[in-house]
């Protein structure tokens, strides 16, 4: 089983479309930040159709003029928009000052994963991935039904995200104990 490593703690949230990945990440972000932890979120867009800037803004006009990177900074926020692909590892290094990095997607990346399961057929995903340490389920009878090779996974209900957040925090403490 893959264990969570030292800070920043990285957790991937993976699953099929419409299983609640973004909703879970938003809830975990609220729960973790409410305990004083800093959280960065990386979302993978497999279709490459997202737009971060909109017509009528200066930054949009700079990009339309040909800028390969546009940075907008204020006293409290920074936005960087680049016209290039960034390897996941590079972004993780860039975000290394955060306590937690939650990643939506990148199923094949080698980090600990929580798999979202909405229907019984979604359990097949658990068996195809490396690093699965937990299952977040919409099902009420999942523990009884699932007997796959990763039956040692921690199971949580999608409706109890505060329990998931507490479990993540407990992983921090387990890591701290291993360092002693």
Write the layout of secondary structure elements.
Elements: E1 9-15, H1 21-33, E2 39-43, H2 58-64, E3 69-73, E4 78-82, H3 88-94, E5 100-104, E6 113-117, H4 123-128, E7 132-137, H5 142-145, E8 154-157, H6 161-179
Parallel strand pairs: 1-5, 1-6, 2-5, 6-7, 7-8
Antiparallel strand pairs: 3-4
What does this structure look like?
This protein is of the alpha/beta class and 180 residues long. The protein has six helices and eight strands, in the order E-H-E-H-E-E-H-E-E-H-E-H-E-H. The strands form two sheets. The protein has a six-stranded parallel β-sheet with strand order 2-5-1-6-7-8. Strand 3 and strand 4 form a beta hairpin. The chain starts with 8 loop residues before the first strand and ends with a helix. The mean pLDDT is 86.
Short description:
The protein contains 6 helices and 8 strands. The chain has helices at residues 21-33, 58-64, 88-94, 123-128, 142-145, 161-179; strands at 9-15, 39-43, 69-73, 78-82, 100-104, 113-117, 132-137, 154-157. The two termini are 21 Å apart.
């Amino acid at each position: 089983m893959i264990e969570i490593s030292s800070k920043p703690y990285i957790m991937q949230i993976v699953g099929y479309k419409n299983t609640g990945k973004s909703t879970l990440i938003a809830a975990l972000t609220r729960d973790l930040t409410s305990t004083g932890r800093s959280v960065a979120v990386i979302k993978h867009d497999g279709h490459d159709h997202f737009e971060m800037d909109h017509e009528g803004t200066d930054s949009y006009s700079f990009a339309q003029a040909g800028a390969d990177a546009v940075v907008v900074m204020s006293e409290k926020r920074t936005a960087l928009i680049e016209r290039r692909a960034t390897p996941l590892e590079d972004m993780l290094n860039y975000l290394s000052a955060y306590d937690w990095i939650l990643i939506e997607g990148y199923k094949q990346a080698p980090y600990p994963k929580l798999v979202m399961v909405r229907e019984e057929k979604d359990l097949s995903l658990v068996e195809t991935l490396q690093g699965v340490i937990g299952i977040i389920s919409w099902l009420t009878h999942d523990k009884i039904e699932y007997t796959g090779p990763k039956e040692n996974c921690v199971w949580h209900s999608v409706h109890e995200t505060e329990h998931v957040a507490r479990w993540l925090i407990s992983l921090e403490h387990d890591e701290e104990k291993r360092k002693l």
